Description:
Immunoglobulin-like, C8orf32 fold, 2 domains, five-stranded antiparallel sheet, 6 helices, 15 strands
Amino acid sequence: MIYDVRHQTIYEYSRVVAYSHCVLRLLPSAQPGQKLLSSDLAIDPAPAEIAERVSFFGNRITSITIDEPHRKLRLDARSSFDVDRPPAPMASLTPPWEDVRETAFASLDLSPLSPAHFLAPSRFVPRFPPALDYAKESFRPHRPAMEAAEDLMRRIRADFTFDPKATLVSTPLSEAFEKRRGVCQDFAHIMIAALRALGLPAGYVSGYIRTVPPPGKKRLEGADASHAWVSAWCGEAAGWIELDPTNATLINNDHIALARGRDYADISPVSGILLGSGDQDIEVKVDVVPRAA
């Protein structure tokens, strides 16, 4: 399936911003199961300086400096993808999760996709003992790793309520866990915390998910969504398996990956500093449009 994706982010400031320096993670790179056909990033006002680099985990990072006074910043990222993911391995044939844990801790690989980088606590996924207790119900002794991870994913979908008003980007996972409410970022962090508490490698993936309008209704512009899900390492043969706890599904051809890392801090779309004061309003619109066959 070929998709055209448009991701618009508009910042409006209550007072003039004299200077801003931003780090953007809005341009995709090649990802497993999808081919990047094209990408472009339009910025208004035009930056005085712009530079691009690739992070350790392979994410494209654009650094910009705007030195002219402005009240609005518009970021318009457009990309096209050919998504064709192979079928996932049979869950029951993956190794027992205890064996996966031992293999991960014994790994000498230090490449970006090594399980070694995804075992330790990280900025948005600290040690959280209640996550271990929650995970144990799914990870019974000697259960196949992928089978147990899928069960954990389905339990999160059943036990937690999607509520965009319940949390902010900065909300700690402990609060989302306590409320049993949140958004895809929260559910991904909770699942990662549960897997790592067991000693299993788990990472964070950002991207998009295609939404299908109700029968007879038109697709609304800007109505698709940025999304986040989990990548779980299930042994050397199965490798990294991606799971979506918000929707209780394995990642399929309706998902488009943008960036990956240990948690949200590694993939945040926009971060930076401003020289100015006052409030800001942020509007984000996403369009995921499949091309006609």
